[in-house]
Amino acid sequence: MVNPKYHVFVCTSCRINGTQKGFCHSKGSVDLVQRFMEEIDDKDLSGEVMVTNTGCFGICDKGPVVVIYPEGTWYGNVTEDDVETIVESHLVGGEKVKELLI
Amino acid sequence: MVNPKYHVFVCTSCRINGTQKGFCHSKGSVDLVQRFMEEIDDKDLSGEVMVTNTGCFGICDKGPVVVIYPEGTWYGNVTEDDVETIVESHLVGGEKVKELLI
């Protein structure tokens, strides 16, 4: 699939960025990738949503960081419980999840 | 920097995807990240362009794969020599590099 309707990028970096504490990988972001894939599969969105893990976005203190294009929406401190909300609200409903915006 | 004007994603995955031969990492994509960063620095674009390495996009036979958002432009078989062209044409001039589109 090229040019998905939504492309979800999840930082799974284990880079320690400067003096910031922790990093996305240590805060469970690999599990986030898995949860996004499950939700997307459950909701039959695999034809229009792509999920890709990434290296460091440089804002580790706000991690786990999830970025959704083409809108350029940046979510921070994302937990596994937030994934269903992001998928239902943003990817299905087209409404950003305001409380997670950074 | 959140919400860059252009966000360049470069696959640096060493995943072997199915039966496809080779993968972006083995085709020099880590050097591409470096070249993008140098070009962006040279052209004083660091305030508006972000470069991030990624995991597998699933089209390894077309790698190295570079994706630029927010437009959702997919480039394939990108070489180090192509980086300056992409930066000048696409990121500075706003014109996609047609011969690299996949």
From TrEMBL, chains A, B:
CDD domains: TRX_Fd_family. Keywords: Iron, Iron-sulfur, Metal-binding. It comes from the Bacteria. The keyword Iron-sulfur applies. GO terms for molecular function: iron-sulfur cluster binding; metal ion binding. InterPro entries: Fdxn_Clost-type (IPR048109), Thioredoxin-like_sf (IPR036249). This is (2Fe-2S) ferredoxin domain-containing protein. It comes from Ruminiclostridium herbifermentans. The lineage of its organism: Bacteria, Bacillati, Bacillota, Clostridia, Eubacteriales.
